[in-house]
Amino acid sequence: MLSFRRIITAGCASLLLSLTATTIAQDKPKEEKPAAPEAASGDKAAAFRRFNTAEGKSFYALITAKQGTAVTFKRQDGKIVTLPIRALSAPDQQYATKWTKFKNDLLNSTEFASLTVQEMLELRGYQSLEFDIEGNHIFVQGAMNDKPVKLMIDTGAHSSIIHDAFAKELGLELGPYDQRIQGVAGSQEAAVTKLTTLQLGDAKINGNRILATNFIPIGGGPGQFDMIFGADFLRELDACISYREGRMFLKPDNLRPSAPANETAKAEIRRWTSSDGAKSFMASLVDKTETDASFELATKQRTSLAIDKLSEADQAIIMKWSKLRDNLTKNPEWRTLTVKELLELREYQSFQYRLDGNHILVDGTIGGPSGEAKARFLIDTGAHSCTMDYNWAKDTAKLEVGKLGETKVRGIGGEADAAFTKVKFIKLGEALIKERTAVSSEIHKRNIGGQGNYDALFGAEFLRELDAVINYKEGRMFLRPDNSDKASEEEKSSEKEQ
């Protein structure tokens, strides 16, 4: 159940924040990344990483084995070195302690490297929903009372809100308009209502009380979208959002959680049907070639059959099947891997975020002509672009800020004055965004978050650029630094060293 006191005071930080100006950020063409150095003895170059000793010395290597409290490394020059784990820096001790041969084999598997985030998460039992991106906003289709519902996914919205006209269409009962919702552009009156059943795929939300308001002033309503799907429901459903895949994933299945850790899952036995429908048999798929599929019968006998002799539905299953995926779903260690571990194996950088109410906060820096300032970002899929607090940008970060009123931001309450703001760089971890034009507005003027809670909204434009993944279950955000301007910085650094 929602706390309406919280909705009123914290508000929806940037519900449907969008810019009326046509040019908000300059998308810089990415420079080509230098080719990765060849690894010794044919090992995959991406598997080598930089390790630091407790004394501050660095070396590039991969772990090949672990024996009790010691690890064996293969350095990039081919030399084999064994060190006690305690001889490494604290972060590398943690990495070495968690290292397993299974994870290492995954990292060096070309087939695993080809798996998408969607495939990895679906193998872990997540259900995925494809979303549409219009402008920079994310939309997902759902259903309520047998009617389709278009949902705008907004991590910056503290609570979910339904368009009041649509709520009446559904036959929902609205209370008096005695509530107020705050946004960057002002506030609006709202009424309390109670949902029947909102369904997204197999996920259902029943009987939750939410607020209803008029979406017309913020560009919503009939034909646009019917409901803002906020952080309250995203947290409840353990949502995971992947911009690269264009999908939202809900409610992971823990895949046989009661099975003992050392138990290996058995291959799935199912019914297979011939192409003419005349014959069928029960078996598990154990291997395939381009033309044939191999099956294991309940009697443990193995048999092969031409794929085109099976029904179209069975052929589709075989086409998607792979030995790696089959082995992963049977491996008990695969079932224990977190999304963090899966994505870090794929070279994403992980950020453990903090929650302020339902808002996601991540620390970074923003640079201007006079240097750089620490910045606390609110991660906001509902914000079109990066939007900073006007006073913070001008007085604390000392950025080049234009005049309020030269552009507008739009959200709950209509429109608010904003100013174009030049940013030398924005940095989150290793991800670097350089030489952009963002906007500033008085985002704390209406008690949205409050001065000091956050300094800027990190919006959908940069989340898309950095292939962001937001995982509510584990409280983490993931970015791909190599998609950013980091690559060009590394090239310059390399040239200076030479």
Structure characterization notes:
With 498 residues, this protein is α+β, with helices and mostly antiparallel strands. The protein is 19% helix and 37% strand. The chain contains 13 helices and 34 strands. The strands form 5 sheets. Strands 7, 8, 9, 10, 11, 12, 13, 14, 15 and 16 form a 10-stranded mixed beta sheet that branches. The longest helix is centred in the C-terminal third of the chain and has 12 residues. It starts with a helix and ends with a helix.
- Report the mean per-residue pLDDT as an integer: 81
Strand content: 35-45%
The unreliable regions are 1-46, 252-266, 491-498
The first-to-last residue Cα distance is 61 Å
- Rounded to the nearest angstrom, the radius of gyration is 26 Å
Class by alpha and beta content: alpha+beta
Rough outline: flat
How many β-strand stretches?
Answer: 34
Please give the count of helices. 13
Largest sheet: 10 strands, mixed
- State the share of residues found in helices, binned by percent: 10-25%
List the helices and strands and how they pair.
Elements: H1 4-10, E1 18-19, E2 49-52, E3 58-67, E4 70-75, E5 80-84, H2 90-98, H3 101-107, H4 110-114, H5 117-123, E6 127-130, E7 132-134, E8 137-144, E9 147-153, E10 161-163, H6 164-169, E11 179-183, E12 186-194, E13 197-200, E14 203-206, E15 209-213, E16 227-229, H7 231-236, E17 240-242, E18 247-250, E19 270-273, E20 280-288, E21 292-297, E22 302-306, H8 312-320, H9 323-330, H10 339-345, E23 349-352, E24 354-356, E25 359-368, E26 371-379, E27 387-389, H11 390-396, E28 400-401, E29 407-411, E30 414-428, E31 431-441, E32 456-458, H12 460-465, E33 469-471, E34 476-479, H13 486-497
